[in-house]
Amino acid sequence: MVAETPVNTDWKIEDGVVVENGVVGPENGDIGRVVIEAPGVVAAARPGHFVMLRTWEGEPFLPRAMAPLSYDVASGRMEIFYRIKGPGTRAIARTHPGEIARVTGPLGRPVVEDFEGRRVALVGRGVGITPLLPLAEHIVAKGGEVRAYLSARTRDYVFGHDRFAALGPVRVRVDDEDGDEALVTDALARECEGYRVDAVYGCGSWRLTRAAEALGVSHGFPSYVFLESKMGCGVGYCKGCPARLRNGDGYKLVCVEGPVFPTREVELSDPVHGPPE
Amino acid sequence: MKAELATDVGPLRLKNPVMPASGTYDWFGRDPEQVSADSFGAVVTKSVTLRPQAGNPPIRVAETPSGMLNAIGIPSVGIEEFLEEVLPQYHALDPPVIVSVQAYSPRECESMLARLSEQPRVDAVELNLSCPNLAHGTITAQSARLSAEMVAAARGATRLPIVAKLSPNVTDIAEIARAVEEVGADALCLINTVKGMAVDVETRQALLGNRSGGLSGPAIKPIALSMVWECYQEVDIPIVGVGGIATAEDALQFLLAGARAVQVGTATFREPRSLARIIAGIEEHLAQDGLHSVGELVGWCHKGRLTVGS
Ligand SMILES: Cc1cc2nc3c(=O)[nH]c(=O)nc-3n(C[C@H](O)[C@H](O)[C@H](O)COP(=O)(O)OP(=O)(O)OC[C@H]3O[C@@H](n4cnc5c(N)ncnc54)[C@H](O)[C@@H]3O)c2cc1C
Ligand SMILES: Cc1cc2nc3c(=O)[nH]c(=O)nc-3n(C[C@H](O)[C@H](O)[C@H](O)COP(=O)(O)O)c2cc1C
Ligand code: FES
């Protein structure tokens, strides 16, 4: 495979430690938060990066890809939110502080654009909100402006809300209060009228990312998406994480050529549940 | 005294008996320090095809108890771009380079091997026979005759060592092994993935984009071991064992069953340091048992029980 820019081979495998782990929000909720100390990976992480995480011995066999909400270089810790769904995330949920967490990373291509003077909209839903916070911090540090448009089932799941709010305006829409008809991108649509947006990044919802892309097309700004895919290795070895290219021209690998792609390049649809309705 | 890890696979001299399985490791011109392909016994490329192909639609991988299913479909840049862009990067590596070739007909095989023979840094070829034979509409590796035709075509086109990689999805593996030995294969690689599938209850459909796929990982180790053991008795050419190896102990089991070297695939996805750990673990075991070389272990199963104290 010949990539346009070199494949990221600057990752390491670190035997980190679980520092905190627990369910977020309602007691029997399905969202967990785990804090892992892995200073080597944390120090090298940039926005757009992800990690492969394995906090268990035995089954399941493969690690899970995770995009941390934050990396704290001072403490060497990363904070991950996970939706408890299948065997991998159930295994993470069973982990206790003090146990080993194998972390491979940082993986993927970081977002390295120059953000000085740029106004960026971030659109995220559920656990898909998390990779947007490192990006938001980076943009502001580089002299850009961010506005976050966050969506979730309930307020408890608007991860990092206050930290986004410290960086710029935040619009929130949650299903249990606002219903699931209106989209958080409706707010972006209104604000685009009086405010210049230079780029939008979407994550965690095909519907919202498609809506954000449509706004980009009508207002003339580029849109990007953080893609997910079932991953075998996360490092480019297995070729198991294809993103379907939009022109029908084959695939790119999410783990080494992404996870962030310009939306014009890739299909914005669920590989399991089919093309956009 | 340090034990000798070096081993021969036919004409190939390896500094240790551990290499990655095709399609489960890639050299991108650099490596993380913890992986370090320079420490491998050999490097095996992802299978390359004559013409470029995109691979299968998603989903390409699914997890199973103790392993995984894959239906990657061999995305390939095609042999010409491979020779121009990919292979030159391997010049930087110290271990022998084994290029895995997937040909859909003996003619394709011939023309790819002719091109590979002209290259300075190809040390051997591995023929991935577990693919459809376009002329016959069946899987090459499932027929002794088609497998022999493919290997014979390769033999006619190159003097490079030829490793024939066989499929476990057959009734009698020894019959295929004998057929490819007869037409000049230098070594066998046993085994490729075991055919399997996964069903998604939510969509009520096959989970993999290609519907069925290949099972790999610890789940298939017993199958691979028995095929190595059986072929060791039936053929004289050396065997490279592969299938579910995740630890040094797994690797030792393959050596004892008759493999002269081993490949590690799916275990790398779980733990990218697997090869390094397996190499170190084999060395430790040899020293512990007071053995001088890996070769002493090869095929021990067939010699009878090791009595305690002997
Ligand atoms: C770059 C990246 C970052 C990620 N970040 C996070 C994160 O921060 N937090 C988080 O919770 N998750 C994240 N994920 C998803 C995560 O890697 C796991 O896939 C997910 O958590 C499910 O794992 P599991 O073990 O619970 O369930 P699994 O058993 O692996 O999957 C649960 C169900 O989903 C289905 N499924 C598996 N793969 C896919 C697929 N590709 N598309 C649709 N359905 C599929 C399975 O068939 C199964 O029914 C990320 C993925 C990627 C690629
Ligand atoms: C993701 C993946 C891709 C593979 N690609 C190839 C390939 O291109 N050519 C080939 O001969 N075998 C391929 N294989 C098979 C492996 O080389 C190996 O024979 C098999 O996986 C069993 O070993 P393991 O259990 O250690 O993985 C692939 C296996 C996996 C899991
Ligand atoms: S997950 Fe293995 S290549 Fe992307």
UniProtKB/TrEMBL annotation, chain B:
Entry function: Catalyzes the conversion of dihydroorotate to orotate.
Keywords: Cytoplasm, Flavoprotein, FMN, Oxidoreductase, Pyrimidine biosynthesis
Cofactor: FMN
Any GO molecular function: dihydroorotate dehydrogenase activity
Catalytic activity: (S)-dihydroorotate + A = orotate + AH2
One of the Pfam families matching this protein, by short name: DHO_dh
Matching PROSITE patterns: DHODEHASE_2
UniProt xrefs under SUPFAM superfamilies: FMN-linked oxidoreductases
Compartmental location: Cytoplasm
Residues bound to FMN: S22, K46, S47, N128, K165, I191, G217, G243, G244, G265, T266
Functional pathway: Pyrimidine metabolism; UMP biosynthesis via de novo pathway
Descriptive protein name: Dihydroorotate dehydrogenase
One biological process term in Gene Ontology: 'de novo' pyrimidine nucleobase biosynthetic process
Organism: Rubrobacter marinus
HAMAP family: DHO_dh_type1
Residue numbers binding substrate: K46, N70, A71, I72, G73, I74, N128, N192, T193
Co-factor: note: Binds 1 FMN per subunit.
Keyword match Flavoprotein: yes
Residue positions of the active site: C131 (nucleophile)
Annotated Gene Ontology cellular component terms: cytoplasm
Family in the record: Belongs to the dihydroorotate dehydrogenase family. Type 1 subfamily.
Domain Dihydroorotate dehydrogenase catalytic: 5-286
Protein encoded by which gene: pyrD
Signal peptide: none
Keyword Flavoprotein: yes
EC number: 1.3.-.-
Matching InterPro entries: Aldolase_TIM, DHO_dehydrogenase, DHOD_1B, Dihydroorotate_DH_1, Dihydroorotate_DH_1_2, Dihydroorotate_DH_cat, Dihydroorotate_DH_CS, Dihydroorotate_DH_I
